[in-house]
Amino acid sequence: MRTLRLLLTASILLVSIVSVSAQQVSSDAANQLFAAGKYREAIPMYRQLLERYSEDPTYNYRLGICYFLSDEDLNAAYKYLKAASTKEVPNKVYYYLGEVCRYLYRFDESLSYYKRFMVNGGSPDVSTVALELAASAASNGQNLLRYSSKVSPIAKAEVNAADFYKTYDTYPSSSGFGDIPAELKTVIDGKKGLNSLIFSHVDGGRVGDISVYASYGQNETGSKDLFFIQKVDERTWSRPQRLPGTINSPFDEDYAYMCPDNRTLYFASKGLYSIGGYDIYRTTYSSEKKEWSAPENLGFPINSPYDDYLFVPDKDGKTACFASMRGIKTNGTINVFKVDGVDNTIRVELSPESAFALQGLDKRAATPEPKASEAAATQQSKVAVESTEGVAALPEYRKIKVALANNESLTDSTSKKIDRLRAVWADMPDSTRQDVERLIVFNENRLMELTNIREQLLDQASSLERDFISGKIKLEVNEKPAVNEWFVRNELLATHLTKPQLDKLATSPLRMPQAMALIDSASSTGVQIQDLQQILTAASDTLEMEKVKGKINEYEASLKPALKRLNSGWASFYGAYFEVMSQMARSLPSTSAEDSVLLQNAQRSYLGAKGIRNGTAAIGETYADYQKVEEAYLNEQKSLNWLSLYLARAAKEKSIADSLYAALNPQKESEQTDVALTEASNFGVVKRDNVEIPQIAFSAPTNSGEFAVNTTASYSQQNPMPSSRSLPTGVVYSFQLGLFSQELNYSLFKFSPMFYESTGSGKRVFAGIFNSYHSAQSRVAQVKENGFKDAFIVAFADRRLVPLAKAKAMEGKKAMETKSTVAAPSAMFRVVVGTFAGEMPKNIKDIVEKLLSDKEIIKSPMADGLITYSIGNFDTFEQAIPLKNRLVSEGIVEAFVTKIELTPNGQ
Predict the structure, then answer these.
(1) What is the pLDDT of residues 797-815, one digit of tens each?
(2) 224, 411, 478, 742: which is deepest, by most CB within 10 A?
(3) Hey, what's the signal peptide range on this chain (predicted)?
């Protein structure tokens, strides 16, 4: 018995030893995987360890990090990191909790953890800038939860990240993305291995087309900015120019897409008002104001805390494709989404849980039910946008209100960002203070811009309110004729029609049955005319031919009044009905995939008609004219019938749906339906090749533009810099870069336009030509950032340097504009300081430089090797006298005024 007990004891000890040994090996293996960054492989090992030691803080801490950094399960990451934070673990646990909560859209909680991490001393491996970017993203997320977009998912695919853009199907097949041409890349782009895309048409596009691309520019320590070029003629592009600071932030901008209108730009930025990584923004260019609008963050669910970029809408801006890193667990892949309702202006408020559930944009997932408070906020938002009472019924007034709401959100986010930065600035070491200061200045400038925009919007709103109250602007209060279309009378569909929509239908010159009858009648008569023309071609008997001709004339005469009415009323009828019916269809609850194809067919017919009309001249009232656009009319009729069919199915109007099926020839259309459904199921398959960007040839720099910073030298020996004689007449401003040798090193100058003025010792070089001091002042910082830190603003009047004060006084006066016809001056005047052997004596030079103002010291070599120093140039003897007198009073008694005769061309 004793022997048995000894054996049992030995067995238990042996098992314990083996167990402890196994435990030790498992812990070492887990830690090795963790140290190597193999977080997904380490998860099961740490889980096994926690089954035995559930309270161990290190295992909880590392398992939470593994779940987070592998993006395996954010809720599990939160659970384990939260448990670890109550024990003795590194302070970085609060940073990770802040990050996890940000990715879970719990932005309030995220900010509190970031603050706790900062108060506890931070961590050496988390920079101040990185922490500020994360906190700013959470703050921006707080605001954007209130303004989420109402988009509908169409398709989603996980594709190869190297060529993800080749799967997009929202832009024409005659265009696409390709590598940025070598002509556009700078030396810094090469050093940093710039890997980005540029959008182009196969043939380079039309004159006026704009291409936007990313570049590091000439600053080795800078971030990626957006530049653009514009097609000048069939073979030439404008020189590259950097987009303004409202678009380019101190952080990376990339993946730009310019819409066919050449004024709507979508791009991705890690700065501005990002909620994490790259976010997608939209900005539009005003040709009247010559400026870009403040970029608008597209918000949830298009943007997420992950990288989101390359947003490409279709021609009508309704559907779009974009790429995102959300939900990616495989290296080398990326998700491409296709969504509908991009043009929907209604914004709703979401809870963190709803936003997190929606970020997958999974068409099969049910939309989360909003909380009571959320539903109330959503309803309130709809009322605010759709209210039709009083001045709010004016469309322009409602647009201003929406813009003000967006401005308020951005202003609030920026103010919080500045407060946060100021709070930590004093505690930062000198090495990082500069970064924080740069962020503070950038955000203060942005806040000023937002404030100015807000004031402009408020002024516009006040003006509309005054005009409305005074009766200058009146609402149409007369009752419109009743609209009797079937979808207006249907009880289910009527709830989705607003008063403005009904008004739009009522103002149409044609009703639906009349318009459709006109098209059918014209088409039928056209077929009869074509048949008769074939008979006429085959006829040989003269009498028979005359009869046929008479019949053709008879049909054409009967067709003429119908065409006249069709041409005068169809355009406004079709525009109103297609818009309203499309809006109704999108407002209805999601239907089956089969029904969604009906909307795709309607859109296809609409685009087909639009393409025909874009390539056709004005419509006349003859049958020959009608033939040119007959297919467009029939496509437009079909687009309305497809929409009607969609609405009829949604409203359970079977008889109407059956008749529409017959009208649309379902046997033929079913093939299209099958193809469309197949295409949707195959979304994400590579269908495109890289577009070969045509060789970029740049136009020569001119003085017509105000100022641009280019990626390459603006001038060369073959294209030399012009002199100041090329300046326009009147008052203009420029930046004086410095005094250079007679032989200019053109590689130094990447600005345009530029010009020079000869002096006795070299060439004074200038950049930019501005019509106002204000516009020059707004760009001087950009010159200094690009290597000319001593640059300053100077003024010219009729191609001659003048004091800034004088130029400002003259600014805007038309007198200077008329002097272009006046002959060049016959003489100019200088104040001679003295003649010296070599350099001017220091005591005299100090006096002269103190009195220079905007003039220059001119060196004139003499035959005997001496150098005469003078100050100029002055237009009149009287202008030079005050300076001469001041020099004499300072002790330079030899100073005098000299006259220099000029040739008739001013030389």
Answers:
(1) 888 888 888 888 877 553 3
(2) 224
(3) 1-22
